[in-house]
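Thread: Newbie trying to understand structure tokens

Hi all, I'm a second-year student working on a class project, and my supervisor (Dr. K.) asked me to get a predicted structure for one chain before our next meeting. I've only ever worked with sequences, so writing a 3D structure as a token string is new to me. If someone could post the tokens and maybe explain what I'm looking at, I'd be very grateful. Here's the chain:
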Amino acid sequence: MSADSLNIDGIALHPGLLDAAAQAAMVADIREIARAAPLFAPLTPWGKPMRVRMTAAGRFGWYTDRKGYRYIDRHPEGAPWPPIPDSVLAVWRAVSGSRRKPECCLVNYYAKDARMGLHQDRDEADFDEPVVSISLGDSALFRVGGTERSSPTRSVELASGDVLVMGGPARLRYHGVDRIRFGSSALLEQGGRINLTLRVVT
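---
Reply by user tm_fold:
Sure, no problem. This is what the structure looks like when written as tokens:
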């Protein structure tokens, strides 16, 4: 499905918002985040490891284990999360429409066979604040539904440099990633996809 077909109130897709140079610079910033806060694979509350590896920057990082889904103010190894890079904050300012700054930049790395099941972003305190998603690397088939898990869904391919905003009536829609098109981008040396998700937490 083309970007034009994702016509949902509250969802704004900005194809190719980041050019090749901006993407490369942002990946370098993300590598610095990963050096300070290494990628990890958290467990779901059911004890199953997630298929994506993740880390975070900002005041909070999203986390899950047998105690449930939540935000924590330190990396699981104990160090504070590093600050959100200016390159990422600039995207938030450009597309979010929010007067607040994001408090979490969740970094998800999708390897060849990684995916993300349908879910809602509902661990935040203020659903009036949008979620901003930045795609880097291999393209992904992004699926979005309604506010009930059983609602009909539609899909769109997100390419490297695309930015998607979910806010307003779309803030609590179920969404996920069915698969990535491994090898579709040369941005990451080892292939795969980086997804940055910016959120106001408190």
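A couple of things are worth pointing out once you decode it. The chain is about 15% helix and 30% strand. The longest strand covers residues 104-110. Feel free to ask follow-ups in this thread.
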